[in-house]
Amino acid sequence: MSQSRSRLGDDRMMAPVSASIEPDNAEFDAHAGRYREMHAAVLGASGESPEYFAQYKLSVLRDIVELDDRPVLDYGCGIGNLTRLLATGEVEVHGYDPSAKSILTARSLAPTATFHDRLDTVPTGAFGTVVLANVLHHVEPAEREQVIREIVPMLAPGGRVMVFEHNRWNPLTVRAVRRCEFDEGVSLLSEPDLNRLLSAGGLTAVRSRFIVFFPKALRFLRRLEPRLARVPLGAQVCVWGVKPS
Ligand SMILES: C[S@@+](CC[C@H](N)C(=O)[O-])C[C@H]1O[C@@H](n2cnc3c(N)ncnc32)[C@H](O)[C@@H]1O
Predict the structure, then answer these.
(1) Which CATH number goes with the domain that contains 76?
(2) Residue 216's pLDDT is what?
(3) C-beta of 241 in contact with ligand 1 (< 6 A)
(4) Ligand 1 centre and the CA of 136: distance in Å?
(5) Which of 26, 115, 150, 226 is deepest in the core (most CB within 10 A)?
(6) What is the mean pLDDT of each run of 10 residues along the chain (245 residues)?
């Protein structure tokens, strides 16, 4: 299931990526209908909504990797929380998720984006940025490096991968994950795990930052967050790397 709205020129549509890590089940099909509700329930303590966290990730993306005019891929886009924010401008946006039911919702939220529920329809050599927002902890640990290896060919030379993950060193985050229906059985990654993973997957200049420190009740302190980037207590961690040119 991929839409044919891509504006990528033929010269940027190289051979499709090999799909050896194509997930064989789409676990999130079972959650698609109630995903937002379940997500909102576990965010209760923060006082914020799923939309707030999607907007936060977009701000971090803009700040760190400086989205340019090359296409963006939201890898593991789910119901399109972040895709729809990315797809409001001129930049071409694609979303990939193995859950076809999640893609149905994402398509209605982000009608101008191009969606894929199969890896072999995702263009290669095309993307300036690929973002994985809270995806990797849903991938079996033994398969995570291969996922990064399969994303690298999708990037244009010099393209960037940005990963957002739950910070397993933050006790409140760990408690929220334990209570989250769609996170049952996941294993969280540490910041060093993520740094190693991106390097092992073929990316260079890998760097990281802790984000999301203060709940809504303490929002007057949020302006301090950029200065806390190395304090390993943020609710989330983001790690990014560059495809060698
Ligand atoms: C917690 S949801 C996050 C969805 C979205 N990125 C967001 O921020 O709302 C995790 C998503 O990862 C997807 N996923 C799981 N394994 C995957 C894999 N191997 N490749 C790509 N996506 C995967 C799931 O289908 C699900 O939609």
Answers:
(1) 3.40.50.150
(2) 92
(3) no
(4) 8
(5) 115
(6) 44 43 71 87 84 95 92 97 95 96 96 96 97 97 97 97 97 93 94 98 98 94 95 97 94
Query: Best substitution site from 58, 97, 107, 181 to test ligand 1's pocket, by max atoms within 8 Å of Cβ?
Result: 97
The boundaries of the domain holding residue 158 are 28-242
Spatial distance between the Cα atoms of 100 and 96, rounded to a whole number of angstroms: 9
Cα-to-chain-centroid distance, residue 206 = 16
Report the pLDDT value the prediction gives residue 21, as an integer from 0 to 100: 55
Q: Alpha-carbon distance 41 to 37, whole Å?
A: 6
Residue 12 belongs to some domain of the structure: no
Task: Give the pLDDT confidence score for residue 83 in this predicted structure.
Answer: 98
Give the Å distance between the CA of 10 and the centre of ligand 1. Answer: 28
Any domain includes 188: yes
- Between CA 168 and CA 177 the distance in angstroms is 9
CA distance 27 to 74: 18
Nearest CA to ligand 1 atom 10: 135
Domain count, the chain: 1
Give the pLDDT score at 18. Answer: 44
Atom of ligand 1 nearest to the CA of 76: 22
6 found inside a domain: no
Centroid of ligand 1 to alpha carbon of 151 (angstroms): 14
What is the distance in A from the centroid of ligand 1 to the CA of 245?
28
- Give the number of the atom of ligand 1 that is nearest the alpha carbon of residue 53: 8
Pocket lining: 133 vs ligand 1, CB cutoff 6 Å: yes
Contact 58, 85 (CB under 8 A): yes
Residue 184 placed within a domain:
yes
pTM for this entry:
0.91
